[in-house]
Structure formats: C-alpha cells, structure tokens
Amino acid sequence: MPFRRRKNTAAIPRTVPAFEHIVTESSETFLWRLDDYPWERNVWNFHPEYEIHLLRKSSGVVLVGDHIGEFGPGYLTIVGGGLPHDWVTAVQPGELIEGRDIVLQFDPERLRGSAELLPELRELEPFLERSLRGMAFHSRTAVAGAELMERMGTVHGLTRFRLFLELVDLLAKSDEYELLSSPDFSPVLDATSLDIIQRTLTYLFQHFAEDLKLPEVAALAEMSESTFSRFFQKNTGNSFSDHVAKLRLWQACKLLADTDIPITDICFQVGYMNISNFNRAFLRKHKMTPSSYRKLSRQRLALRA
Questions:
Q1: C-alpha–C-alpha distance, residues 104 and 121, integer Å
Q2: pLDDT by residue (tens digit) across 87-109?
Q3: Rounded to two decimals, what is the model's pTM?
Q4: Of 61, 177, 251, 296, which has the fewest beta carbons less than 10 angstroms from its beta carbon?
C-alpha cells in the first residue's frame, strides 16, 4: 500500500511550522506519498529536499516563493530546496479531498554524490539549478510526468527507481515550463517568521473578498504597519496590496471562466469597490479586459472539447 497521509480529525493546536522534516526509508532514494487535503502539513513550508508535486484533483491557489498563481487537476511542479511553497484549496468545514496530491521528495546531494560513479547524472545540474526558483510544467510534459508519478504508486524497488529517473530526465530536458519565483526572492526562514506568515496568508486567503485594511492585518501579526509591511514583503516577495490584488484577480478569473455571473457582480464579489478599479487592475495583470478573458476562456474550452 502507498504511504498515505490523512487528515487528523482531532483538533490540531496551532504549532510553529518550521521546516518540514522529510524521512526517507533506508531502502529508498526518494519519498513517494499520496496526500489527502487538508492535513496538518498543508502550510507555507520549506525543506532542503526537492519536491515534485502533482495536483490530481480540485483547483486553488499555488504559492511558490513570491509567485501566486492558479492550479487545477494535472498541475505539475518541482520546488527546489529551501523555497517556501503551499497549494491552497478552499474547502468547507469537515470537507476532505481524498488523494488530492502526489508528493515526491528527494535529496539532490544523493544525485550529485552518485555522479562520481554514474557520470550521466551530471547532466541534471542545470535542471537542479533552475528548480531552485520553482518550475511549473505544461502540455505534453505535464501529462507524461503525471502518468509516471501515478505509476510509481503501483510499484516498488528498482522499478520505482527506474520511473523516478525517467521522470527527472523528462523534466530536465523539457522546454514546456514556467519559472515561478523571482531570482531575488530571499525570505527569512526562521520558525517565528514562518508561523506569522502562515497565519497571515491563511487569513488573507479566507478574507480577500472583504474590505481588508493593512492596520487590521498588522495588528493580527502584532506588528506596527511599517514593520509588518517590510516583513510581509521580505517573506512573500509581494507587498500587502499586491498579494491581495493577486488573490482577487485569481478568483475573478475563475468566475469569468466557470460561470455566467455578470462582470459587474464579479467585481464586487472578489472585493473591488468599483468597476473602474477592477477593470484597470485586470488589464494590468492579464493584458486584456475581463470580457476578453471570458471570451478567450470559452474558446479554449470549446477547443479542448
């Protein structure tokens, strides 16, 4: 049976999310895991190991370094060591999404050390360097990579290791990817900062459609406005206002693509106070108007169908 993490149904006290400690069996080169959502490690976290992450179900917001984007089923990423990340889905109280994620984690130093005996592994070094910013794959690479990750859950030993090498080789050679985090993103990775950032990000995700005020959120973090602004920028790579705007526009895109709600109503539902500000922000972010985005989304849906 695959190693599967399930939600702890007991009340979970708030703990400091330092870095995630990865435990790999002595008989394995990497950890393969099937995760339900949510569970207690679904937080803004980091670890020295690299992580290849497949979202099998649902949609939501992806946070990798200072990148904020959208994911859906089949979203495939690799996150380098030390880069904070989280994949957030809005769920109802008590809701559990079984098998939402496949997570593969490995120590890059094992590959580098093995290159002394297996020199072909040196070809992976440029890929490992790129992955430090996070990479999201698309098109054929994402489909083929997802298939390999699914197959790993059905086998063990040398067969699983062969699939791992095939997956890493696929991702390393692909040009179907987007780099996620910016090169100059450099958060303060200490336990206290991560605890504050995690609570803040959770609060913003839950309330971004409301009239959020910087002083109120700074007070939740028990900081002055100026201190919190600097702290938030340093540890997320985005200003407070930019982060909220990205969450609002992500939700707007989802509503434009998936519903027939009038654009004016969407504007107010996602937290904008007037349609002019909404249209300007949307045009600045997506280089098109909300109506053009809706039309393009439906054309793409028709083509896929």
A1: 18
A2: 999 888 899 999 999 999 999 99
A3: 0.81
A4: 296
